[in-house]
Amino acid sequence: ADLTAGTMGKPNVLGEIGELSEIEVSRITMQHGAMERFGFQLRFSQRSLREIAVVDEISRAMDRAAFNMAKKMNDDIITKLEAVSNDITEVDGAAVWSDAAATPVEDILSFVEASMVEGYPYELNELFLHKTNYFEMMKYLQGIDINWVRDPLAPEGRVMPVVNGVKIQNLHSTQLAEGGYIGLDGRFPALTVYQYMDPKHGALPGGMVNVNVYEEERFPYNIVVEMYAERGLALKLPNAVSYKATGI
Questions:
Q1: 162-200 in b/e burial notation, b at 16+ Cβ within 10 A?
Q2: Which end of the chain, N or C, is less packed with Cβ atoms under 10 Å?
Q3: Which pairing describes strands 223-235 and 36-44: parallel, antiparallel, or unpaired?
Q4: pTM to 2 decimal places
Q5: Pick from 113, 109, 130, 242: which is nearest to 175 by CA?
Q6: Rg (alpha carbons) of the chain, rounded to whole number
């Protein structure tokens, strides 16, 4: 877009007194108020903290809250990627992957080829799939060559091998419907994630969720745990994203 708008000039051919082209990079625009705040509050009595069985339930509640915070963050990113408008003409597979005529390995080559837009350096090298399609691909690879199969007890776990230079991921999210795919160029992050971490409060491991713990001032002096995040998403490289709602 910068090149088309003339913001970024083409490189000059240099002679003995030639000068390099100057580049002015256009700004990433973000609407005021786009930072979204969300979170949970958990309240426990002082007495409950002395009960061993209850402490275990409190730990589970904290884990569940942390999981749901992470899931919302991931789902927000997926929703943003699915709404992208780019210059890529995303293609279907030769057949849906549940069909006996499906050729998933060749389909990936087609996805990569379609992602290469003239004038941009992006090339699909990470493919995110619905769980059903992920395991359809895994079974297909096993069927054509047993060496594709990985030991589930290996240190890296059950991991899909790289196919035609593309890393394949199981999205684990209902945000992507069965038959759809999201492709990214991992070298060029398509989204910028803005977040604010309050220096007065702690953070969960990974540093994306603020945590504030305090004791209420009146009886029974409950312990309150607040978990919250403040984040905004800005799409900066639309042609580094491929998204198709159906086709495999």
A1: ebeebebebbeeebbebbbbbbbbeeeebbeeeeeeeee
A2: N
A3: antiparallel
A4: 0.78
A5: 130
A6: 24
